[in-house]
Amino acid sequence: MHTLTYNPMKRRVLIIAGILFFSLVFQVSFAQTDSLRRYEFAHPQMGTVFRLTLYASHDSVAQPAAQAAFRRIDELNAILSDYQPDSELSRLSAMAGSGQAVKVSDDLWRVLLVSQQAARLSGGAFDITIGPLANLWRRARRQHELPAAPLLKKARQSVGYQHIRLYAREKKVMLLKPGMKLDAGGIGKGYAVDEALKIVSRRGIKPALVDAGSNLAIGDAPPGKNGWRVAIGIGPPSDTARATYLMLAHTSVSTSGDAFQFVDIGGKRYSHIVSPFTGYGLTDSRTVSVVSPNGATADWLSTAICVMGNARAKKMLKTIRQTTVWVWEPDGKSEKFGFQK
């Protein structure tokens, strides 16, 4: 589901690092190198905890960088949240069907540009206009009952990326159909980890990792290492026996699946990820991890591939460079495809 509900929507990516979970508090590890120390910070936002691990020479370097990164994340939440009625995204949605083009910020413009490209590449498997269906499915999960057919039919009439008009010269956006509601959840956290890592890098801190649960942005490797050790796989965080371990630097990771977010209705398991084509939560319990150069791309791809399946995804990935995908089926079988080094 493309939901900046910002409830944790995706399967957690396991990171082999002891990152504390309390906000704006940091931990320092001195057993690294003579010149750089390891710092760990955490900040709750977007329904998850953003965790920042970095290597810096001193507290006076690390703390301001972390605070600036978290301010950037807060700023993006105020722009992209579909839960906050006064967010920029919500205010744009409120103008749907008015016939007016709305001037948007640089951040929202960039997210919409990437989202529209993603929708075209995926044939609509990723669709930022999924908001009306996402809202119905949130209620279905709370009430443990499927959406009523008339409500589902009405919601589907307001969904469709083809009904967004972008005016590049003025950076204006028009939502053509009444009732349209944008939902940036399948791309927003990926964009946020990208931006947080940029803030840290601009302050001269290169060995860093930003973790938003299922979304990672990774900078230079830790001192003396060839990468950050990241585990992707299936099952809860304690289930490391079935994990795939990667050593990564200068890349991003996103994982989507229903390990933690699902509902049982009538004896059938439905994912929190909603198909734009049916309006229902997915039922195949697949897990998808994507490694790609930037977080926004990895984010939308992991959602879209859950919806579209492997065959279509393989065709789509022929047009997307430097991206690798792992798919785990419910029976534990896995497949890897995409860009290969």
Description of the structure:
- Helix content is 30%, strand content 24%.
- The chain has 341 residues and is an alpha+beta fold.
- A nine-stranded antiparallel sheet has the order 2-3-4-8-9-12-15-16-17. It has a three-stranded antiparallel sheet with strand order 1-10-11, with no helix packed on it.
- Strand 16 (324-328) and strand 17 (334-338) form a beta hairpin.
- It starts with 13 loop residues before the first strand and ends with a strand.
- Residues 1-25 have low confidence and may be disordered.
The strand line-up of the biggest sheet is 2-3-4-8-9-12-15-16-17
What's the shape?
Answer: globular
Mean pLDDT reading: 87
Biggest sheet descriptor = 9 strands, antiparallel
Determine Rg (CA atoms, Å): 20 Å
Structural class by helix and strand composition: alpha+beta
